[in-house]
Each structure stands twice: as structure tokens, then as C-alpha cells.
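Assemble and predict.
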Amino acid sequence: MSKEDVDQVAGLEKICFSDPWSKETFMEELQLKLAIPLVVKLEEKVVGYTCLWHLDDQLEVANFAVSPDHRKKGVGEKLMKRILMEAKERGCKSIVLSVRESNQGAVNLYTKFGFVEVGRRKKYYRLPTEDALTMVKTL
Ligand SMILES: CC(C)(COP(=O)(O)OP(=O)(O)OC[C@H]1O[C@@H](n2cnc3c(N)ncnc32)[C@H](O)[C@@H]1OP(=O)(O)O)[C@@H](O)C(=O)NCCC(=O)NCCS
């Protein structure tokens, strides 16, 4: 993800989430030493993105989305393969993420890649309030 991508990413974020990250938050991600912000592009257009945080021997997936126009075509899998590569290259022992318990599509994707549910954070999300499932993949 570059500065030039942030307008597109923030636009997609508003479409994809009820409680979206702001453009400023994405700009901050570009400066953060521990952050690894990535995009997938199709003919110069951003069709997917993820923001990762490298914390000691763990990679956290802080944000992950695919444009509604490009879903169910393997873009999410492409991003996930890149996440696994980043984690391995950095010597991480695990990857962790949170997901709304009702988000079956995302849970399916994560399960397909070997993530398992390890916990639940009560009322973690707002708009609407909902529990988060914590999922981990051990490398
Ligand atoms: C979840 C999301 C990232 C999936 O992206 P995608 O590019 O459509 O996913 P893919 O095409 O690579 O699908 C990979 C797998 O994910 C699962 N999956 C994806 N969408 C699904 C859906 N609508 N219903 C059920 N399973 C789904 C399936 O297991 C699929 O594998 P399969 O095709 O063999 O069944 C996308 O729907 C999205 O951006 N949703 C809104 C934002 C979001 O929820 N982000 C995750 C926050 S934790």
C-alpha cells in the first residue's frame, strides 16, 4: 500500500465495514514501523487490502477486505497466501486475527487456511455490538 492507494482503500473500507477505519488511520499505518499494509490491484485498481502488525514472533491481521465487485474470485485467498509468506519470512510462530462471529464468509476463509478459534471477546465490536472470535494459525 502506498500513499497514492489510500483514497481507494479508505473508499473500500467504508463500503466493507459498518465501523470503518479513517483515511488518516491508513496514512498512519504507512508510517508505523510494525505495520505491513498491503494491497491487491487489478489494472491499477485496488480490489483488496490487508493491514498486518508484526509484534515479536506473532503477526496480527488488523484489517482485511476485498471489494464487493471482486469477491468469490480468489482475491481473499491471494491476500491470505501473501500473509502466510510475510509471516514465514519474518520468522513468526503464529498469526492471530479477530472476526465478527456472524461473519461466516471470513470465518470460512480463515478456517480453510488453518486458523482455529481460540477465544471470544465479548461485545468487542460496535455498530452493531457483537462478540469477536479470536482465531490463530500456528506456523
Ligand atoms: C471475507 C472476504 C475477505 C472474502 O474475500 P473473497 O475474495 O471473496 O474470498 P475468496 O474468493 O478468496 O474465497 C476464499 C474462501 O473464503 C470462503 N468464503 C468467501 N466468501 C464467502 C461467503 N460469502 N460465504 C461463505 N464462504 C465464503 C470460502 O471458504 C472460500 O473458499 P471456496 O471458494 O473454496 O468456498 C470478503 O467477503 C470481504 O471483504 N468481506 C467484507 C470484509 C470482511 O468481512 N473482512 C474480514 C474481516 S475479519
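The longest strand covers residues 45-55.
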